[in-house]
Structure formats: C-alpha cells, structure tokens
Amino acid sequence: MPKRGMEPIRQLQFIEATVEIIHEEGLHGTTLSRVAKRAGTSPGLVAHYFGDKAGLLHATFRHLAKALGTEFRDHLARVKGPHQRLRAVIDANFAESQSSPAVVSAWLAFWGQVNHRPELARVQRVVTNRLKSNLLFSLRELVPAEDADQIASGLAVMIDGLWLRAMLRTGGLNVAEARGMARDYLEMQLRTREPETLDA
Amino acid sequence: MPKRGMEPIRQLQFIEATVEIIHEEGLHGTTLSRVAKRAGTSPGLVAHYFGDKAGLLHATFRHLAKALGTEFRDHLARVKGPHQRLRAVIDANFAESQSSPAVVSAWLAFWGQVNHRPELARVQRVVTNRLKSNLLFSLRELVPAEDADQIASGLAVMIDGLWLRAMLRTGGLNVAEARGMARDYLEMQLRTREPETLDA
Amino acid sequence: MPKRGMEPIRQLQFIEATVEIIHEEGLHGTTLSRVAKRAGTSPGLVAHYFGDKAGLLHATFRHLAKALGTEFRDHLARVKGPHQRLRAVIDANFAESQSSPAVVSAWLAFWGQVNHRPELARVQRVVTNRLKSNLLFSLRELVPAEDADQIASGLAVMIDGLWLRAMLRTGGLNVAEARGMARDYLEMQLRTREPETLDA
Amino acid sequence: MPKRGMEPIRQLQFIEATVEIIHEEGLHGTTLSRVAKRAGTSPGLVAHYFGDKAGLLHATFRHLAKALGTEFRDHLARVKGPHQRLRAVIDANFAESQSSPAVVSAWLAFWGQVNHRPELARVQRVVTNRLKSNLLFSLRELVPAEDADQIASGLAVMIDGLWLRAMLRTGGLNVAEARGMARDYLEMQLRTREPETLDA
DNA sequence: TATGAATGAGGATTCATTCAT
DNA sequence: AATGAATGAATCCTCATTCAT
Lengths: 200, 200, 200, 200
Fold this sequence. Notes:
4 copies of one chain form a homotetramer.
Chain A: H1 7-25, H2 32-39, H3 45-50, H4 53-77, H5 82-93, H6 96-99, H7 101-114, H8 118-139, H9 145-168, H10 175-193
Helix pairs in contact in A: 1-2, 1-4, 1-7, 4-5, 4-8, 5-8, 7-8, 7-9, 8-9, 9-10
The structure holds a DNA duplex.
C-alpha cells in the first residue's frame, strides 16, 4: 500500500521502533526484521529509507542528539541570566524526553559503538561540545575563564556519570535525584569560587 | 597437541584475547573464531572451558571486576588513615591496569549488556557496591553519616563519568587529568563539610 | 529471484526433497543444506517456510500421514459394504503412494523419533487411531463388538508388521505379498468368527 | 586408573550405557561423551575398545541380537514338543530382557539405520532368519511344509508388528497382551490347518 | 589402560541485503 | 512506495576423533 508523502512519517516510525527494540533486546538483538515489525512494515523497506542497517542506526543516534538539542533550546528560551541558564542546561539533560528507559538504553548502546563507527563518533563529539559550550557561555559571566573551564568540565563529567548510573540501574538513582546532584555540584563549585557574589 | 594442566593458562589466554578483540572490533565483532585465533587455539575449545560465548563474556567481565578489586586491595594495603585511604581508592580506579584502552573499551561494552544479561548485572552490582562501601568506610571517620553518604554517591558518580569520558575519547581527557578531577571533587567536598579540621 | 505466491509450491518441494534425502542418507544424514540443494533453493529458506529443522520434519510427517488418509478416502469412496470396505482399507495401506521405498524409509525414520518428539507422537497417534476406527466401523457390521475389537487390533498390528518387514527388506517381502498376507489374516479371522455368513 | 583385564567389563558398561542413552535421548542425541559419562569413563576410551562410534553401535546391536538369541536358547531348553517349542519362541521374543523400554527403543533406533549401514543389516538378517527357522523347525512337525512356511512368515510379521506397537506406545499395548495376541494368532492358524489334531 | 585437552569439520540458524512484483 | 521471497555469508555450537601424558 504505497502512499505519497510517507517519508518523514516512516522514518520516524523506524527510528522510534529502533529505540524501543534496542531497549528491549539490546543492540545485538536489534535486527531489521524486528524493527520493521515493530514499525508495522516489512524489512525490505529499511533499504529504501536508510540505505542499510548502519544508516538506520546513524539516523537514530542523530535523532536522539537532535532531541537533546531541542530540549536545550526550549529550556534556555524560558529563562534569563547565567544562573538560570545553567540550571536550564542541567534540567534539559534530565528532561522527560531524555529520561525514558528506552532512550537511556539507546544512548548507552550507542556509546558502546562510538569507538568503532566514525559516523557515530562525530555525533557524539557534537553532543559533548554543545554541552560544554552551553555551560561555558554562562559560567564565564560568573567566574574567571580558567575556573569556568574547570567547572564546565566537572559538571559535564558529573552529568555523564549520572546518566550512566541511571542506565545501569545499580545505583538506585532516579531522575529527580540525579538532577539534584548535578545542581548541588554546580552550586558548590560556584560558592567556592565566587564567594562575594549574592546568588539568586 | 593436548597437554595436562592447561586450564588456568588457557582461560587467561581466552579472557585476554576477548578483551583485545572487544577493543579492536567492538562487542558485535567479537566472534568466537576471532577470539580463538588471537588466543592461539581453535574455536571449539571455548566450549571446553567456558561452555559457550555467554560463559566466556561472563568470565571476562568477572576477570575485569576482580582485577579492579585487586587494585583496591593493593592500594589500600600501602596507606593509613582515612584521607590516604580515600585517595588510594581513587587511584585504584585509575590505575594502569584499569586504564589501558582495551580494558576501558571492554568495560563500556559490558555496560551496554548489563541490562540484558542478569549474570552481568550481578557482577556490576558487586563492583558498584564495593566502590561505595570502600568510600563510605573512610568518609564516616571524617564527616557525619549523612554527609558521608552524599559524598560517596557523588564521588562514585564522578568516577563513572570520568571513565565514560575516557572511553568515549571525546572529552580529550587523559588518565592523570581524570584522577586529578576526582581528587579535586573529594577535597572540595571535604573542605566544605569539615571546615575546622586541619587537613593533610 | 523472489516471486509471489511461491509458498505452497516451495513447501511441497521441500517436503518431497526431505523424503528423498531421508531415504538416501538416513535421518542422520538429512541436513538442511542437502534438502535445500535437492529442492533447488538455499538453506536459509527453510526458516522462512518451516521455522527450523524440526518444523520441516513435522510438516513432512504430517504430509505423509495426510497422503495415507487420502488413500483411505479414495479407496473407500469406490466400494460398498463392510467386506469391500475392509479390503479397501488394507489396499490403501499398501497403495503405491505409500509403498515407494523413499516413503517407506521416511515412515521408519519418523517412528524412531516418535518417542522423543511430542509433535510427531501426536501425528502417529492420529494415524493409528484412524486405521483402527476405519477397521472397527466395518467389522462391527460383521461380528460382535468384542470380536470386532480383537480383529481390528490384530489386523492393525499385522499391517504395521508388514510395513516394517517391507522397510527392513530382510524378509524378502514385496508389496503384493504383504497385501496378500493382510487379506489372508482378515479372512481367516472372519471365517472363524462368523461361520454362518456367506462371504463375498 | 588403568587396570588389567578391564576389557569385557568396560565393553559391557559402554554397551549398556549406549542402550540407555538411545532410549533417553534418541539415536541423534547419542553422543560419545554422553555415553562415556554414563559409563563412568572418558570419551576417548571408546576408540580404544570399539574403534569409533560406528563400532560402538555395531557392537551394541550385536549385543541386543545375542541377548535375544540367549532367550531363545533358554526358553527352548526347558520345553519339549513342537507346541511347547513354538510357545517358547513367542515367549522368548517378549521376555523381560527384551521388553524393557530402553531395549525396545534401541531396537527401533537400529531399525532406522539398517538400510544405511550394511553391518547393521547383516545383524538384522541373522535375527530375522533365526526367528523364521526356529518357527519353521517346529511348525514342520505339525503341518505341511507349505503351510508351515506361511504360518512362520505370518507369525514373524505379527511379532514384529507387536514390537513396533509396543515401541510406539500408541496402541496402548503391554507386553502380556502382545504375547497373548501372538499366541492367539498361532493357535488360530494351527486350528485352521490341523483340525484333526488334539492340541495341548 | 585411561584421561581430558585439542582440533576442525559440519550443522542449524540468523540476518542483512537484494530483487521481482 | 511497499512487500516478502530468496540468497548466502557468518556465527555459534556440537561432536567424533586424535593425541600427549
């Protein structure tokens, strides 16, 4: 039943199906026929939209990265001033769209591939840099450049660690707690470095 | 060319080969024949020593976890007092044996499996708990119980994040820097919470 | 070279190939690649149509059982009265379609599996019951119920024994002789139990 | 722990283990390591005693055939006269040693191989001929040669059919009933052909 | 005589991919 | 645009067999 203008709809169907299957079966169990079945289509159609399996995974990873970027933009659009912006960046990282178990599983699965697939490494680099520059932009308004760099690095590491914990589910950590820890880290750092400022 | 008493030698050969191949080819490219070839034996021998592929991976993961545990013990054996012990725990996590690219790749690959393989989840839980209790033991001598808990959690998360960064190689982080960041985090926390103590 | 609507054609090709290979190589030598080659396709296609090897064997056994059932129906459709019907049942069991060496080999091979594969046991039970009830239906018109039961059992056993002999080819028995012996057995039994009837 | 004079003990251990494993796992599941384990030894030892797997199976089949022959001899040794001898032959075929489920499974498994392994065909031919000549010897004292031949053939077929039924377990037949049916068949045949004789 | 280490061929099965429809 | 038939390579695993001890 071919229809016109299906391209964006189909692509999204496939990508969402891929994320779900990765979560349920692991990356190793993520086969094209399972994904196709979940997407309600046939396996052969993947070639039409993504070329091959690698193309599908690449598109899925980019989709996740883009969704995270959208969260950044949305959270930042609502606030003003460096302190609120920093908090917005943290919140964006633990937003609902990024915290569903399936999405989190997919991120972890992709991380395992980053060192073996250049196209995924590129995506990851963009994600890492975007977070860092978002943090730096606000931090530089509050502390000296060198301190800003240190805090940004530390906070980025903290956020990654919190994601990892959430994924491995061995730390008994939920999203709210994770967000809280990231905020505490930031506040502690700022308190140490800008003692004279009256904070919001 | 069968010889007696090969069991421990062969097992170690297989495990080391597995770590190397995971690093070079990714978990997906880690086939029994590649591992066997690297170990200098035939693929059929895996069954003899590990039952099947899952058994080999399980044994490899346990081996990594055990090696990390050995680092803890060794580092802790050389020092005295809570401050030195905390530093020893951090150093153990970034010891050489745990920082080779191959080992680090293997850890990441296994993390991607933890949610889909109960036997790996068990290993990971042991690793997580061991780190936490090692940190807590020393922290409780320095700060109130509640604070100790918070610091231990934060430091554990930080260490995981640093590992992840080191693995993804997108943060431009080396081992020495990672260790430095973990130490900084710890010191900052202690400074905040035990202001009256004269620290070493 | 994929074509639409191949399902029934392919399935029959596979089943016939399976029977031939069982005859030529034994059940142990019946590998999927040999069957696929004989059927003119690739081994992977078995999964598409039968799931796995067990599915193929099950389907083959059911096919044999069904073919035997068809012989019953055809032979019975042409005759009238209990005597003719009983003879028809015997003839059906030794009809050409059931007597080719390949078919006979396949039956024996399956019998060897019946006690280890429940799905095959079910098929065999159907075959056994069908023969018995076919015999009973006619016999009850000729002799008392109890006698009918005994004769049906005895004749069914005789038929099985004759098949086995034909298969093992150690008795120097051909199909015509086998059929003759089954008929003799039946007639002797009837003569003993219904002396007053004038037989056809 | 090598010992002297183990040969006959070991061989019997292996053969009995083989029969058991065939019963439990089917001929297809009868691997040398399973047999060896059951026999309490190591797989490599099979080569020492039987050359290879085919040798083990051949020896096992010969063992079964020999055991059946022993039953004949024992049952025949105790009786006198053609009628008693015929009954003894029947009883031998359904003696306990031949009726255990394991033994019966093994016979069926071997029958499935007879057409693909000349050395097994030879054994089967001996078994078939021995039964026939045993029956003929006694029958010829009771009825004309031609009748004797017919009855012997029929009875042999009947016995095979009864065995098969017992194996397939789809006829709901136990050993006692089977023996009864064979006796009935014989008596009916004799009654028909030697009406003037007063039977024992 | 006995073990169990080691091999390597062979089998079932899975799966990405291609292609006729 | 979409299907699903078909392929064949690749993988895991089993197992008979050989061999050093």
